[in-house]
Amino acid sequence: MVTERTGERTAVALVSSGGKDSLLALEALRRNDEYDVRGLVVTIAEPFQRVSHHGVREELLDLQAEALGLPLHKVFLPGLETTNEIYEDRLGKVLLRLAGEGISAFAFGDLFLEEIRAYREAHLRRLGLTPIFPLWGEDTVGLARDFAARYQAWIACVDGRKLERSFAGRKFEEAWEEFPADVDPCGENGEFHTFVGDGPGFARPVFVKVGEVVERDVRFFAELVPSNNGSTAEET
Q1: Is residue 73 part of a domain?
Q2: Is residue 176 in a domain?
Q3: Is the C-alpha dihedral spanning 35, 143, 68, 192 positive or negative?
Q4: Are residue 124 and residue 209 in the same domain, yes or no?
Q5: How many domains does the chain have?
Q6: Three-state secondary structure along the chain?
Q7: In this structure, is residue 89 part of a structural domain?
Q8: Are the beta carbons of 61 and 42 closer than 8 angstroms?
Q9: Which pLDDT tens digit goes with each residue over 49-102?
């Protein structure tokens, strides 16, 4: 997306969850001279002040964005009452505002689920916006191995139908090779979600304590709490 005439880069915002695939997508964008990453967009379940579906505290996303040196744009959703219509309306308003401020494209960390990509493309097309998928088609085993070697992340929640409760709260880099064979190593089918506290692009780590694990419906959520003690490995 670089024009020969001007050499201008495409201004991009990443729609992020603060998890593994989002951070890999951010790294891919930053390494590509075609793109100028201007910010992050995250959906927050407002009643709980947590990342939608992941259960990660809003304040951890604030700390992560600060460490990455990027502004964080929040889309507030009504929690359990959120419908597709509400999601599309509120996300759309934030994306259109950013487009009005000069953002030309919006990136997602999706890997291979065609229906999810088609949904995002259709939504952004209705808004007149351009989606990009910097990790699309990448081998998930290779991505997981590369991520584990260079980043630090915690498994924030797991689907109890796919993974045991004991995986919630563990370091991804220590746990991923223990996943059952039917679990995608990047969790692309929703088997688990992560929060990233350190790695390429971070000016400083985000320190985390791992608290109790709570069961809701079929999922187990690990309570990840910001910590100031200088140890990302601390557990309560």
Answers
A1: yes
A2: yes
A3: positive
A4: no
A5: 2
A6: CCCCCCCCCEEEEEECCCCHHHHHHHHHHHHCCCEEEEEEEEEEECCCCEECCCCCEHHHHHHHHHHHCCCEEEEEECHHHCCHHHHHHHHHHHHHHHHHCCCCEEECCCCCCHHHHHHHHHHHHHHCCEEECCCCCCCHHHHHHHHHHHCEEEEEEEECCCCCHHHCCCEHHHHHHHCCCCCCCCCCCCCEEEEEEECCCCCCCCCEEEEEEEEECCEEEEEEEECCCCCCCCEC
A7: yes
A8: yes
A9: 888 878 899 999 999 999 999 999 999 998 778 888 999 999 999 999 999 999
Q: Which amino acid is at 145?
A: R
List the domain range (segments joined by +) for residue 26.
10-132
CA 133-138-142 angle, 5° bins: 140
60: in domain: yes
pLDDT (tens digit, 9 = 90+) per residue, 195-236? Answer: 999 999 999 999 999 999 999 989 999 999 999 865 444 444
Same domain? 97 vs 162: no
CATH of the domain at 71: 3.40.50.620
CA distance 148 to 152: 7
| Contact present, 200 and 34 (Cβ < 8 Å) | no
pTM: 0.91
Q: Cα 207 from chain centroid?
A: 17
Q: Are residues 22 and 110 in the same domain?
A: yes
Distance CA 159, CA 192 (A): 6
Considering the domain architecture, whether residues 102 and 202 belong to the same structural domain is answered as: no
